[in-house]
Specification:
By secondary structure, this protein is α/β, with parallel strands linked by helices. Helices cover about 30% and strands about 20% of the residues. The chain is built from 19 helices and 28 strands. The strands form six sheets. The chain has a seven-stranded parallel beta sheet, with helices on both faces. Strands 13-23-22-14-21-20 form a six-stranded parallel beta sheet, with helices on both faces. Helix 4 crosses helix 8, helix 5 runs parallel beside helix 6 and helix 15 runs antiparallel to helix 17. The structure holds adenosine-5'-diphosphate (ADP) and zinc ion (2 copies). The site of adenosine-5'-diphosphate has 16 residues, from helix 6.
Length: about 675
Amino acid sequence: MSFNGDLFAQVALDLPLGPLDYRIAEGMELVLGDRVLVPLGSRKLVGVVTGFSRTSGVEEKKLRKITKVLADVAPLPEEWLRLTEFAARYYMRSWGQAAVAALPPFFRKAPGVRYASWLKKVREVKAPGVKRVESPELNEEQQSALAEIGAARGFAPFLLFGVTGSGKTEVYLNAMSRVLENDRQAQVLFLVPEINLTPQLERRVRERFTDQTVVTMHSELSDLERARSWLAVHEGRSRVIVGTRMAVFASFRKLRLIIVDEEHDPSYKAGDGLRHSARDLAVKRAQLNACPCVLGSATPSLESWNAAQRGAYRLLRLTHRAVQGASLPQLSVLDMRARRGEVLALEAREAVDAAIARGEQVLVFINRRGYAPTVSCPMCGWVSRCGHCSTFTVFHKAEKRLVCHHCGSSYGVPERCPCCGNPEITAVGLGTERIEEQIAAIWPDARVLRLDRDSVKGKGQTEEAFAKIHRGEADIIVGTQMIAKGHDFKRVSLVLVLNVDAQLVNPDIRAEERLFSTMLQVAGRAGRGEIPGSVFVQSRFPEHPIFSELRAQSYEQFAQRALADRRESFSPPFVHQAMLRAQAETLDRALGFLERAKQAAPRGGDGITVYDPVPMSVMRLMDEERAQLLVEAQNRGELHRFLEQWCARIAPEPGIHWFFEVDPSDL
Ligand code: ADP
Ligand code: ZN
Ligand code: ZN
């Protein structure tokens, strides 16, 4: 559709309002999806044209003209408009909040005086000078997965369930090759979790598609680089994009395949803005494009697993490791109940001795950075807390600081207890720094490398740290999530998993699922080469059923039990949830707002439950008090009808920041 005689254009702006009407100046050439510059109050904003009309309901004198069409870049395609419209409606935001916010900063800011020369830089194509690496010959399971994906016509969601190291990535790469070879214009989207866009994976993709312009899109890129990737895909110069959750909103000419690697990963869920799930939107986008979507994981999310059980997704399995001779590691649980005070059990220490003696590498995984989760006074019970949040501060020994991991505030370590004056305050619990210190003390000759967000910063340092591991320049690697996933360490034969107990007793319904997947992923780092691997998990709850499922390396056993629990407790995926969240200066105000919002709620059908407002588990964050109200529904459509009606009835109040979160990932 294009402008022919219409007088008004609807322009979506990054504001909590629907698209606004603007007058089209005579002679202005305009099409749907154009980016335009429009006046709003005293500001000039970039918006996206989402429609045209001959009339407007807005008062004559309030109607303003479109300032300029940013026509040096092709309009956003209709498919992209439909995706952002869907996302806005689904996640209870305005179209503009979904659409404009999805553009790279360069394309969403009002053009400055040097816009034209910058745009030239953005259009520059970088040459990808890597040597081509051919695909290995696929094994039978890989071939049959590939054949099924290749045979799909139209929209086809797949769940590729393959143990760690089973060659899922090879299946993705081959499926991508086929699509690119069959259609000279086709484009593919390869989504990876935030933490997983490793240089290794990026290289693997570039080496496979040397005759394509492969671009990446993730949060480490500069504004210029991101704009460059975005435009290359938008203009069809690049046919392969590898990116994190933001890439699901890239603009394509002809998207023919979507891959979502490690589909269970929590980083696909956005913690701000739309608060969308990039995985869920990827499936929706494949539907809009009538193309296949492959979700892959060794530990699928229970939502996806359930969808595969119901037959909504087609299940593809890879049951063994792809590399000849590589096998899944032996896993043992060490009962820590009788070993108070010991950080590493004797069996674990002996295994480390043996691995190092053989010249193999050891991974020690602990999901907490810093030295200790808090410092405390044993005399009066004082505990170090953040002054801005309802959280404990983490002790970072190297910097001698107490840091809040929620807001980043940092404090000096008091010389004596601020409450009772006791000079002997102590660090409580374990973090990566403390483990590193203890390991260095037990194995003074070993080369210990710590890998967490404090020890390596930015892509360059991370890349160098991983290169060091691959070159065999570290014997023991201590790390957080950063080492858990995706890495293909050929020399690691032993993995120690510490400190899982807090997660086991966490009441969050997803805590166990996350723990299981993390443990299995970490365990999956061992034995990927020809050296057999072993894994030790230390716990004070060794009888917990999760450990027998883990020992059996049986995700399916785990999923069956966990889904039965969810069904019994009426939890997702058996109910659909949305949360109304409010932030205010005081908790009373936040709760009061939610209470009034609850009163204003329309009468839901039988299938809708509106709960009472409650404080969030981290109640204060950066000096704002936070509360929330849960809504549950049996039926997805009913939930959305309810939310739409309700949203229109909520009266804004000064000093209250509120928003909906649909499909919240933690309660
Ligand atoms: P996953 O994505 O399931 O973790 P990858 O695709 O990374 O697995 O494969 C794990 C290892 O096995 C990699 O080193 C990869 O090169 C190798 N590999 C995968 N498929 C094959 C195959 N068919 N033949 C030989 N090696 C393979
Ligand atoms: Zn004290
Ligand atoms: Zn804080």
